[in-house]
């Protein structure tokens, strides 16, 4: 029960998911997920294609409707029909496999768009923040470049900067490096790594097992819409308990 649709309650955890179910028609894709994520925690989600990883992330900012269960993010109960989704989404940034930058806008303009619309400050302030973000992702010299003039890795770093521009408390990454040429994966993972060390709360769906092992506080292995197993990277990669986890890891490691 929330006291108000717009005021976050005090929270001990940044994300609290209980009994989350999601169906598309008769296809139940998430079959009761329970997940609690603390402030500053980095959780990597791994698992075979089709296991519901993207759907899970999309339920965390209600890009997908929630069929049953509760999802509380930064104190906002997403199953409360009065919840202000625009407000919630300022707390949660999301980065996808494909960058979805506006092709007719420069890198700087792409980053400035949301904070200008949301009146996050004067135009000069928003611009200064956007420039700082470009510097943070190592692209100060690309402010005036359009997406077509950028490499895949550069585009994804602009997309991350754009997500950070509304100053979110939580970042969700859905296979942010899967569409990149191998030589560009590292530069994007480095930006995510930096965010982790700055204490950003993150849920990272990834196929990069080395990265998950290095950066995650916790790794969740999903299959067929359930959490099969979770633990520290040492536990999950070093000593998986479930046969399905062992099978998956034997194929990808
Ligand atoms: P993953 O990210 O682990 O590969 P997804 O969450 O994308 O898995 O998909 C899980 C299942 O949900 C798949 O069977 C997929 O076909 C189905 N699914 C995902 N999105 C939709 C949708 N918008 N409509 C119908 N089915 C969907
Ligand atoms: Mg997916």
Automatic annotation (TrEMBL):
Cross-referenced InterPro entries: AAA+_ATPase (IPR003593), ABC_ATPase_HisP-typ (IPR030679), ABC_transporter-like_ATP-bd (IPR003439), ABC_transporter-like_CS (IPR017871), MetN_ABC_transporter-like (IPR050086), P-loop_NTPase (IPR027417)
Domain of life: Bacteria
Enzyme class: translocase
Alphabetized Gene3D superfamilies for the sequence: P-loop containing nucleotide triphosphate hydrolases
EC number(s) given by UniProt: 7.4.2.1
One protein family per Pfam: ABC_tran
Keywords: ATP-binding, Nucleotide-binding, Transport
Catalytic activity: a polar amino acid(out) + ATP + H2O = a polar amino acid(in) + ADP + phosphate + H(+)
Record-level Gene Ontology MF annotations: ATP binding; ATP hydrolysis activity; ATPase-coupled polar amino acid-transporter activity
Domain spans labelled ABC transporter: 15-249
Record flagged with keyword Cytoplasm: no
Protein name listed in UniProt: ABC-type polar-amino-acid transporter
Species classification: Bacteria, Bacillati, Actinomycetota, Actinomycetes, Micrococcales
């Amino acid at each position: 029960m929330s006291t108000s649709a717009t005021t976050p309650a005090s929270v001990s955890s940044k994300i609290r998911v209980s009994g989350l179910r999601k169906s598309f028609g008769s296809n139940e894709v998430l079959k009761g997920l329970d997940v609690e994520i603390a402030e500053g925690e980095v959780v990597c989600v791994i698992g075979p294609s089709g296991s519901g990883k993207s759907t899970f992330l999309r339920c965390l900012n209600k890009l997908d409707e929630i069929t049953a269960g509760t999802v509380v993010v930064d104190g906002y109960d997403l199953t409360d029909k009065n919840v202000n989704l625009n407000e919630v989404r300022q707390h949660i940034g999301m980065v996808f496999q494909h960058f979805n930058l506006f092709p007719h806008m420069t890198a700087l303009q792409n980053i400035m768009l949301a904070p200008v619309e949301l009146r996050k400050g004067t135009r000069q302030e928003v611009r200064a923040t956007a420039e700082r973000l470009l510097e943070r992702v190592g692209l100060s010299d690309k402010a005036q470049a359009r997406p077509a003039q950028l490499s895949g890795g550069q585009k994804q770093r602009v997309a991350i900067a754009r997500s950070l521009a509304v100053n979110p408390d939580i970042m969700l990454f859905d296979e942010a490096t899967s569409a990149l040429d191998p030589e560009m994966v590292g530069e994007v993972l480095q930006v995510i790594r930096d965010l982790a060390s700055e204490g950003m709360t993150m849920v990272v769906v990834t196929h990069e097992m080395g990265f998950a092992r290095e950066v995650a506080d916790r790794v969740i292995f999903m299959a067929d819409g359930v959490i099969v197993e979770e633990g520290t990277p040492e536990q999950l990669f070093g000593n998986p308990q479930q046969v399905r986890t062992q099978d998956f890891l034997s194929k990808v490691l």
